[in-house]
Amino acid sequence: MGRILLAMALCLCFQTQGFALHGELFEVVSAQSGKRFSVTEEVLAQLPTRSFAARPPDDEKVIHHVSGPLLRDVFRFAGFTGAKAIVKALDGYEMEIPMSDFQKFDVIAATEMDGRRLDVRDLGPAWILYPNVDNPDLNGPLYASRSVWQIKEIVLE
């Protein structure tokens, strides 16, 4: 609940700092080269979209229809590789995700939920989600903790 309240408070701040104004959803960073890649609306338009049913960790009783690019496609498009991803959220939350997750599962950066575009008020503009309805093994605290909302940056190490 604290993360949701903080997200609402940060919404106006991040919109005026350029996140929403310049169309940047999040950045992917190569720890090896130090290069940064901005994931924008223009980038999304060039990537295929994946859709599936998911139970977000904030309300596992409800099933939502989510869509967005596969994160493995985003990393490939950026030209970055690594053994793990350090995902950083707007509220300071950080989570390490092994790159094997992105290869084994169709993990997306959800940008839409139930036909609506996610924004900061809706825990967007991008939210890492696993296809946990079709694959029940992806339910539980491990994958819930990896389902980072309000992605700010993903560092590939």
- Please report the number of helical segments: 5
Kindly state the number of beta strands: 11
- Low-pLDDT stretches: 4-21
Q: What fraction strand?
A: 25-35%
Structural class: alpha+beta
SSE arrangement, N to C: HEEHEEHEEHEEEEHE
Mean pLDDT: 88
Domain count: the total is 1
How much helix, percentage-wise, in residues? 25-40%
Just give the CATH class.
Alpha Beta
- Note the gap between the termini: 30 Å
Level-2 CATH architecture: Alpha-Beta Complex
The oligomeric state of the chains shown is single chain
**What is the radius of gyration computed over CA atoms, rounded to a whole number of angstroms?**
14 Å
Strand order in space, largest sheet: 2-1-11-5-6
Q: Can you tell me the overall shape?
A: globular
* CATH fold category name: Sulfite Oxidase, Chain A, domain 2
**CATH superfamily, called what?**
Oxidoreductase, molybdopterin-binding domain
Q: How would you sum up the major sheet?
A: 5 strands, mixed
Walk me through this protein's architecture.
With 157 residues, the protein is of the alpha+beta class. The protein has one domain (2-156): Oxidoreductase, molybdopterin-binding domain (Sulfite Oxidase, Chain A, domain 2). It has five helices and eleven strands; from the N terminus they run αββαββαββαββββαβ. It has helices spanning 2-16, 41-46, 71-78, 99-104, 141-146; strands at 24-30, 36-40, 50-54, 64-68, 84-89, 94-98, 108-110, 112-113, 116-117, 127-129, 151-156. The strands form three sheets. Strands 2-1-11-5-6 form a five-stranded mixed beta sheet. A four-stranded antiparallel beta sheet has the order 3-4-8-9, with no helix packed on it. The radius of gyration is 14 Å and the shape is globular. The termini are far apart.
